[in-house]
Amino acid sequence: xxxxxxxxxxxxxMAEFMAAGKQPEVLFWVGCAGSFDDRAKKITKxxxxxxxxxxVEFAVLGTEESCTGDPAKRSGNEFLFQMQxxxxxxxxxxxxxxxxxxxxxxxFNTIKNEYPELGGTYEVMHxxxxxxxxxxxxxxxxxxxxxxxxxxxxxxxCYLGRAxxxxxxxxxxxxxxxxxxxxxxxxxxxxLCCGAxxxxxxxxxxxxxxDVNIERTEQALxxxxxxxxxxxxxxxxxMTDGVKNKERENDIAVMDIAELIANxxxx
Amino acid sequence: MSFLPQxxxxxxxxxxxxxxxxxxxxxxxxxxxxxxxxxNDNKPQRWKNMAMIALGQSKMVKRPIAGFLHxxxxxxxxxxxxxxxEIIIDGLTGQHRIFSSAxxxxxxxxxxxxxxxFAVLVAVIVFWIRRNIVKLxxxxxxxxxxxxxxxxxxxxxxxxxxxxxxxxxxxxxLQLQLNGAEGYPTAGSFPISQWLLPLFDxxxxxxxxxxxxxxxxxxxxxILTFLNYLYFSKHLHILLAFPNTYYGKLTPKGQFENxxxxxxxxxxxxxPNVDPFAAPPEGTEAAVPAKFGASDVQDLSWVNLLxxxxxxxxxxxxxxxxxxxxxxxxxxxxxxxxxxxxxxxxGKNIDANKGEFKDDNKQLLGDYITxxxxxxxxxCNACVEACPVSIDPLNIIMQMRQYLVMExxxxxxxxxxxxxxxxxxGAPWPYNQMDRLNWKNE
Lengths: 267, 442
Fold this sequence. Notes:
Chain A is of the alpha/beta class and 267 residues long. Chain A is built from 12 helices and 8 strands.
């Protein structure tokens, strides 16, 4: 079954586009989590299905993509960050890339805000913004499907929300599913972090009385959701762990917005 | 008529303002100990931010109760200062209520000052109750023990005393006006202090004059004392909130600065035409900083230091911090207070050593802020968003992490592993870069 599904996925690379003498409409920056993390790979595939469905001419860098350097920079290793940035920028500039979409708010923030000064200026969109624009242009339609009327709460990723003031695109998409969007007590500009940012994803937390993802999961559970929607692979992991910790994984799903839209259309 | 009171007044004014000016000079010198950064961009937006955030209190009202009460005290403070202007002119010229020639306008002015003074009194009492009886969590953190707690209360006591003196002065004045006392012509309206009249009932004019004069003198001397208290207090925010919001960050919160010195080195490493053994071109040695990141206040930028002096310890940052909420040691407010306290220590060191800083074997990192606090940060920007006066604790945390990693290689083991992975295979996990597209066929 998986084999058949994946055969349907069209994932051309920049190298293939270049060999054919063509430019894609947009570069899909997959990111490390989206490439290697088992849970995040599902998000990547869901987003690709939507891109295929909407007939978007996109490409990935594939083996030419490398970490943006975000976790290195937030750890304080500016050297490593800039080495990564300059390498990635060289690759992307060589392909004359103009527009980038990514499902990772950390990659989104870094490429959008920190690459220009180092020579890499692109139009960068988070996948929820991109899906919203496809919807507005009539290239993608969204149906509620199995999510119609479901209670969904959205967890704002810090690097999408506070860091870049993107609050509405993901929410608009959830509303399009005819779902009941419920807000947590800390949301939008006051959204509580999942606990993964600033390279925390890669280390044990400092001593405290609780883990940040448990605190955030408790806030999410207060809304009595059926689904916790996320827009970041790291938030997704943290919230999934939180839901498991609360032994609610059987009745509450943590899903990326791209997955919700793709699933609703049985893609 | 004796000129003695005028002389005493003038001396008090000169001492009060002179000492304050001296402290302001010290304050500016200390702020300038920070690393130089050039902030000259987008002036219209900066003025707008100052008007909205400092003058307009736009972020204060995000928490409606504290925001509303604060606006009362703030508006009261600004407007009642018109009265202080009159007091100063009266004091220097030996006149009494010199603005009263404005007639009806004066009545409206004094009337509104009184209403505001009463509102301020109520607000300040509520503030005191919030700090001392309701015991709001954000006023109880460990960094608030001792002086910071006293400081918060002293400011409130100052304000209560000043407002009471103002109303007493007016009440006694009104009674003298009603008595037809010489030198107290009918002027002003007294919607609040008229309720004090029963207290003055039956007192002789000379006693009333003593009460009125005493309240008048204590009020203005109190204001001068308060002015000089500012430098030693978190209350400095009433002045520094303005420049601080002006110089606040305009770029997206997620955008962290790229270190220019690193950029130069990285560019050289990436350039195949560079001769790695060539002597650096003239003048570039100075461009490489003595150290990467910050371990002490002099390594931070002057904006970081201005931030530190502006902090009024409200704790909104700390109450929004995910690390602090879950019991970690990190408190963004403590980062700001530590920076300020260390800067003060450095400033005093300079004063004691004839203008030169003598190494005291202490620094911000370790002696004030621990590694544990710095590594607990998720860089989520909640503290930056919460600050009502555009302070950026995250920027300081990141500069100190840079020092830990680039100067001391003191990152936690797991982060070193993560960084090694990025160096070796372009991902934070040990996966081969050649496998990046494998998901396509899984």
